[in-house]
Amino acid sequence: MRYTGMGFLGLIxxxxxxxxxxxxxxxxxxxxxxxxxQQLRWQDFKGHPQYQYEDISAITSSGIVxxxxxxxxxxxxxxxxxFEKKESWVKAEALTSHHLEHEQIHFDITELYxxxxxxxxxxxxxxxxxEAAFEVFVEAIQQNWQAEQQxxxxxxxxxxxxxxxxxxxxxxxxxxxxxxxx
Length: 182
Description:
A hairpin with a 2-residue loop joins strand 4 and strand 5. This protein has one domain. By secondary structure, it is an alpha+beta fold. It has four helices and six strands. A four-stranded mixed β-sheet has the order 1-4-5-2, covered by helices on one side. Helix content is 42%, strand content 16%.
């Protein structure tokens, strides 16, 4: 379950962090970068449950990080989906495989939008000096990603609607295959 209760839009903005970094540090033990062969485990949720949010049982803090630089006059980039262990948490009542699947789908949606961003950027050329335009372009896709995360929670009622969650599982899995090589 995710994002129910108070401050829905504020919580979305806080929890779906999108970080733009100039330098890469992929070796943090507190970050998991999405891979097809590694699923989330409850042990990955290292944050402290926020009991003041009575209607929220688990939070997945994921994001899309993009590194950029200039080479041969063009902006080059690297885009990755990540999961923040220390910002993600679960309450005891949600320690079920069903709830874990719900949280994994949130992370999979993040990977899907990382792939969509890579595809969109590969189809455009941004030249050195056009960093502001590059960021505006990236932000538009990130807004779509956040809207998809919200739609997922609304349609599944934060995992309560099991049939809808199954539909989302298949929808996202199919889209991930479609964007496989990105």
